[in-house]
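Hi team,

Filling in the usual template for the complex we talked about on Friday. All components are listed, including any nucleic acid strands or ligand strings, so the model treats them as one assembly.

SUBMITTER: L.P.
PURPOSE: interface mapping
COMPONENTS: two
RESIDUES: 870
SEQUENCES:
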Amino acid sequence: MAKRSELAAPLVLWVDGCPEMTQFGTWQPKIRGRLYYNWPRGTCEEALRFTGSEQLGLEPYDLVIIGAGVVGCGLAYQLSQYELRVLLVDRLHDVGEGTSKANSAIIHTGYDAKPGSLESELLQEARAAWPDLAARLKIPVDPIGGIMLAVTDEQERQLVAAEKNAHANHATDVRILSAAEIREREPNASPNVRGGLLVPGESLGDPFMASIAYAEVALANGVDILLGTGIAGVELGQAPGAPLHHLVTDDGHRLPARRIINAAGLGSRRLADGYGGGAFDINPRRGQFVLFDKCARSLVRHMLLPMPSAHTKGVLVSPTIFGNLLAGPTAEDLPLDDPEATHTTVEGIRRVMEGGSRLVDGLAQQPVIATYAGARCACSQGSYVIRYNDGAPGVVTVTGVRSTGLTTSNSLARHLVDGMQKELGLELSSDTVALDARPESAWPGWWRRPFEDGAPDARADHGCAVCFCEVISEGEIRDALDSPIRPRTMDALKRRTRALMGRCQGFDCQVPLAELVSGHTGIGIEQLTNNGPGSELVAPGQAVCPEEVSA
Amino acid sequence: MSNEVHFKVAIIGGGPAGIGAAVGLAKRGVGPVILIERRGEVGGTPMGYRKKPGGVPTFIEWTRGRVVFGEELAGRLTKRLAQTGTTIRLSTQATKIYPAEKRLTLLGPEGLEDIVVDAVVLAAGAREQTPAEKGWLAGARTARVGFTRHVTGWLDRHGLLPARKPIVVGSDLIAYSAAAKLCALGSDEPVMIDRRRSPEASFFERLFFRRWTRPDWSGGVSTVEIKGHGSPTHVESSNGREWQGDGVIICGQLVPNTELALMAGMAVDLPSRQLQLARGQALSQPGWFAAGNVLGGFHGAQWCYFNGCRVARSVARFL
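RESULT (copied from the run log):
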């Protein structure tokens, strides 16, 4: 697919800046797609506001992808390489905002997958492709490796089987370590460690940047993106052969589509009911995480994994690519009627601390800065459920993609494109001017700091910090606001820049940051939201004027 | 980093303690001194507490029998600082410190800069505990779960309310002053919850704020979860009690900003992040001192100022 790769950058690592510098903060190639937010008047610039389907053009879409998580975005990126009219639509207000944002950010080797399964196959393909993909899309990846720790005699006995399984998945560099070898590599590992399994290929990734990068390139290549738009149902076309379907949005707009891809994750069941898709059950499973301060990062050198049980892979302790330490997740089945119950519980956090402390000594002493939870899209029919012509011709269901979704996003997309050619008769012709990379001129990201690189054309406002904890400058915030998927919520901005994500959790910077965003975009400061309409930073209405009070 | 500049003393933080140190050093004729402030103005926390909103004295000190507001106090301190001849770097942050070499990397509007000094006063102040840090507060990650600094930020600078029906978590003096400010400016009477059986603020402190607020107090709460999608709708305790509200204000239990020292390998207790101090408020590395709220606890601006003055004596003696 390497066509107009504009760069030959090395693997982007968070530790070093990139050598070659170009003008920051601009996306030099023309952006061919359209981006709209289905928001009320005044909550974003009028030019970004979705008012009706005529804004998207009258011609029906060849494909509409419902769900802009890492699966949907990866597919949009892949499809944007061809001459197709594609729409990516999501209920939420940024790409990768649902399940995709709250994973443990591991680029898996697939050593523990079930050999011969589709998941294992996709993971193996992904393992080989990630270094190149990360370099092209500027997704930070750090191959620090993992160690699976056995802390009981029974777990120690399971190591042999785990190693065998890894080798069956062609992860030949996986090997068993003795307790002494582990102590040498991980001085802070729990004294109960009996042995472990070294998995050199496991890497840390940026949990947010993958979805954003895919979507940015897709948008530049002409994929339209519609955010904040829930799909209420599907009106199936009745014509024989390749009928024209219509998606009906929550507020009644009709979007014509020849093919529909249901990548709606936790919402995929409800959507599938609308087009009569085959039987599958979504079993949302919540995972709670505890994020430690950067001062805890030096506690471990690898990602430390527990031995998995039948139910879950267990609580792991891992550095993050941002330099923090992360423990989690729990595995709690959520009621089906509330798949969005992604709140944390005191009990869950306690269990994460307990699980983490089984692997790492002194973890409980470390300062915690935040806790969060996500819901895995677990499917009772197994992982990676893919159905073509599901319920109606031209409809594809992709569901049951769990923790490996980030890793396999691109290989899954290729697999789906192949499948759609075979099963749906999708005809492809390459778009000769499509990008397959984020250009060097794209907004550099938190891992590449204009002021640190000493770039000659770095702007003066790249030196003034607005977020003190993560040292994020005003210039970086402005550049992020101008990046192709115009982020217009504080959460979207935070995933791109890391502002508000530091140890003070917005204590110092929330108000100044809101002022900066409001000033740059022209959105009223009282209209700014955390994650879309309904989550405004302040209560409606003005405070009582002080003069009135004193009078 | 070839353009290393040398100073006698660097003061990290331009709040009352930092200003106190600068004034104290100037009195003893120590110089040149550089004061590093990450915000755009010196004065620190008191600067955020202006007199105007509702006339609620939310940040006050009694000096010579007279009430002084935060802003006014900070103004006085700033004036004193201006007379000292201290080099002041605004919008500049120490991003890295090298304790043994006494070298600091600063990031400011002009980019990165390294300075070398003979002594350092850490006066970085404190911040409020995050909800996660409390350990007994969980639930949905919604908007409008903030700190008292947001209350002053939104009200004073924009005339906007961070909550119409606030739920205040914590019960110290700061919590009461935030509740008073919110009430005076149009919010409903706040709900105030805490783990403690009785409020942390003293009887007299509570009495002082009764003119503006009489919060609906619930003590002895074991764990609390925030409920709501997007915005908070209510909070729920583990024993099934519920309080309605559209915003949560987290107060109290300040955390000292000692991470810079901690990550540079100086002696800091965990998980409290208290600096380990020797005589004269010296840190574990020779030539490093600390002053003000970075020492831990919750102190007023005047205490911090005088503490800064006092540490200047230790610094001068060291030099």
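MY TAKE: The first strand of chain A starts at residue 35 and ends at 37. Residues 279 and 381 of chain A are 9 Å apart (CA to CA).

Thanks, L.
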